[in-house]
Specification:
- This protein is of the alpha/beta class and about 180 residues long.
- It contains 6 helices and 7 strands.
- α2 (about 55-65) packs across α4 (about 115-130) and α2 (about 55-65) crosses α6.
- The N and C termini lie far apart (about 45 Å).
């Protein structure tokens, strides 16, 4: 059960409640999508998606020559490509209204990964693309073992949606965009 504390999160939860209430009353065919951690190359570098973890790390690779974390990176996240987000949105627009059920869907990549694991994956893709290694910098200490993350997306899968899971391609595309836009 969501228990938002930040005003931004609270307004999102209230909006969800309005949409789902109208959906329940059959006033509209409403869908609420709770998105995990999306990432991917924006259409242009001007699209402000650089606060997304993976996007930020790709930009850091080009601009600073290192991947700097603000923590040990043990936190677990469910990452999903923006390509899969777009496919899911299209899928939800096309399905029969009966498949919407209560109208609430989680959308994620289907696998928990630590922030450090994703950072290491970006470093590996950087090396493939550029032929150069890149340092991962993170604070000492603060390396508590990750807690369990069970971000369930079964309801969406039950409607027939399938992920393309082209994670490496999405990382590569984001790195290439960063090299073009922010490279020296």
């Amino acid at each position: 059960l969501p228990r938002p504390v930040h005003p931004y999160a609270i307004t999102h939860k209230v909006t969800e409640d309005f949409v789902l209430a109208a959906h329940d009353l059959k006033q509209l065919q409403g869908v609420v999508v709770r998105l995990s951690n999306g990432f991917g190359a924006p259409v242009t570098p001007d699209v402000d998606r650089w606060t997304l973890l993976v996007n930020d790390l790709c930009r850091q690779a080009v601009m600073s020559g290192e991947l700097r974390l603000n923590s040990a990176g043990t936190q677990l996240r469910d990452f999903i490509t923006l390509g899969d987000v777009a496919l899911a949105a299209n899928h939800l627009l096309q399905i029969d209204v009966q498949q919407l059920a209560d109208g609430l869907f989680n959308l994620g990549g289907g696998r928990a990964m630590s922030v450090l694991e994703m950072t290491e994956r970006i470093a590996a893709r950087w090396q493939v693309l550029t032929g150069r290694e890149i340092a991962i910098v993170r604070p000492a200490g603060d390396s508590a073992p990750p807690s369990v993350l069970n971000y369930r997306c079964d309801k969406l899968a039950a409607t027939g949606f399938r992920l393309t899971s082209q994670v490496d391609r999405e990382i590569d595309d984001t790195l290439k965009l960063c090299l073009q836009a922010f490279g020296k």
